[in-house]
């Protein structure tokens, strides 16, 4: 009798090990090319209000001069540094995440159309 009860319990335990959840990977490819980090950052800051947006624009209007001789990474760090003047630490982290996801790219592309 004990063997009869033990076998279903073992099978149930094996079934739970085999039925482990699998991860999901998704990929999305946009029809347009990459949009500049500076414009995506402007969109992010613009959500916080027009006043912050225009102050940010005044601060970064000469950044295109720096970009010509710099690497993409140093240009990205410069944009984050300039944006941090107008954002909290939490918002800076959200901005980094948004830039990594390129979540403001559709808004920039729509503005360019």
Automatic annotation (TrEMBL):
Please provide the record's keywords in A-Z order: Signal
Q: Residue ranges of the UGGT thioredoxin-like domain?
A: 35-113
* Signal peptide per UniProt: 1-19
Q: Does the keyword Ribosomal protein apply?
A: no
Per its UniProt record, what InterPro entries does this chain match? UDP-g_GGtrans (IPR009448), UGGT_TRXL_1 (IPR040693)
Tagged with keyword Transmembrane helix: no
What's this protein's name?
Answer: UDP-glucose:glycoprotein glucosyltransferase 2
What organism is recorded for this protein?
Characodon lateralis
Organism lineage reads as: Eukaryota, Metazoa, Chordata, Craniata, Vertebrata
């Amino acid at each position: 009798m004990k063997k009869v009860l033990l076998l279903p319990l073992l099978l149930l335990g094996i079934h739970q090990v085999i039925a482990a959840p699998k991860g999901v990977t998704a990929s999305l490819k946009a029809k347009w090319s990459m949009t500049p980090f500076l414009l995506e950052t402007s969109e992010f800051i613009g959500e916080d209000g027009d006043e912050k947006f225009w102050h940010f624009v005044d601060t970064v209007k000469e950044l295109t001069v720096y970009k010509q001789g710099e690497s993409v990474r140093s240009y990205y760090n410069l944009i984050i540094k300039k944006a941090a003047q107008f954002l909290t630490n939490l918002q800076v982290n959200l901005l980094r995440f948004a830039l990594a996801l390129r979540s403001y790219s559709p808004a920039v592309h729509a503005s360019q159309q």
